Amino acid sequence: MEKDCGAWINLLSHKVKARLNAMLQDLGITAVQSRVIYYILVHCQDGPVFQRDIENVFGLSRSTATGILQLLEKNGIIRRESVASDARLKSLVPTERAAMLDSQVRACLRETDRMLTAGLSDGQIQLFKEIAAQMLDNLDHWDTASDCSSDKECPVSKSVHN
Hints:
Blueprint: H1 5-24, H2 31-43, H3 51-58, H4 62-74, E1 78-83, E2 86-94, H5 96-117, H6 122-144
Antiparallel strand pairs: 1-2
Helix pairs in contact: 1-5, 2-5, 3-4
């Protein structure tokens, strides 16, 4: 039986995560943590980064993001600092340890991307990104749909959307 798009995406996701986890094991971080560290390091230069940014960018629930960030904080990779305008808000600030991990994390992410795209033309890579973005947009629209016009278009019970 031929795999559907979701099966291919799932397989790619698991393989990428497993390879990244193996590459990052000696650094004491996981694939997901590496991407969060990279995001914080890149974006903190433009202004404060908050937990809600991590949730939105990575599509994480609040509890999942909290768990990841608490572990990064416990391991001395980030710290949370109160924001002057609202003491309830805590910005995520990379520590010296995060800065030390930066080049290794970037190298692992680059190598993973190189392995993923080997044998693909620039045009194919661009097309993949466009298709993946459209699929993500499709899922976002599905998530926000309040009603489905038919069971064929929406195999999930309508009560899920209400």
